[in-house]
Amino acid sequence: MYLYGASGHGKVVAEVAEEKGYHIKGFIDENISKTTLLDYPVIHEPPSESIDIIISIGNNRIRKNIVDQNTLFTYVTLLHPKSSISKRVDIEEGTVVMSGVSINSAVSIGKHCIINTNSSIDHDCVIEDFVHISPNAALGGSVYVGEGTHVGLGVSVIQGIRIGKWCTIGAGAVIISDIPDGATVVGNPGKVIKVTEL
Ligand SMILES: CC(C)(COP(=O)(O)OP(=O)(O)OC[C@H]1O[C@@H](n2cnc3c(N)ncnc32)[C@H](O)[C@@H]1OP(=O)(O)O)[C@@H](O)C(=O)NCCC(=O)NCCS
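^ thats the input. predicted complex w/ coenzyme A below
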């Protein structure tokens, strides 16, 4: 398999793939100054044949653009063996779950998400495509997170909250009311400081 994105985040994703026993052929990255990462070669254009890929780029919009532009890729899903995932969880292709994550019963997680180190997602949450749940974030039960939203480091979201699409929830925020599409939110309690038109 190849990892698309030779970044710091790429190193972490590569180690999940290694833990799962994948044979990593290398990284793909458009930056021609990058030639190796973690002793793997970096190539600068995707191979022409159909290949197994995980996109190892933290930016949610860039992950979506890569998916939209590349139809030949087959996406793998990487679940760290030291994560705790209920057997009643649905996780779609291209998503990576890092070490220490807990995902409880009846959760649904979309495509190309990052469920980052030590985050926790309680029962009945719905996480749409291209979401990033950052390290140590905690979602209570029945939280909805819309497409492309970034939930920052250490964020807490109380149960039953609906967060819109392409939002940014700043590090350490505490979310106690619903958040509209495109909003940037910071603080405790979380306050909207900006809304971007989608
Ligand atoms: C919320 C965030 C996106 C704002 O970034 P930004 O748009 O560049 O905004 P600025 O840094 O200009 O800050 C705007 C205001 O919000 C405040 N602010 C920014 N981030 C904040 C945070 N996390 N909590 C509380 N206040 C915050 C700033 O102090 C500033 O306040 P002021 O106007 O009174 O001076 C960013 O600070 C953040 O928290 N990103 C998440 C990082 C993260 O979790 N990364 C995960 C890595 S795996």
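The pocket of coenzyme A is lined by residues 116, 134-135, 152-153, 168, 170-172, 184, 186-187, 193 (CB under 6 Å).
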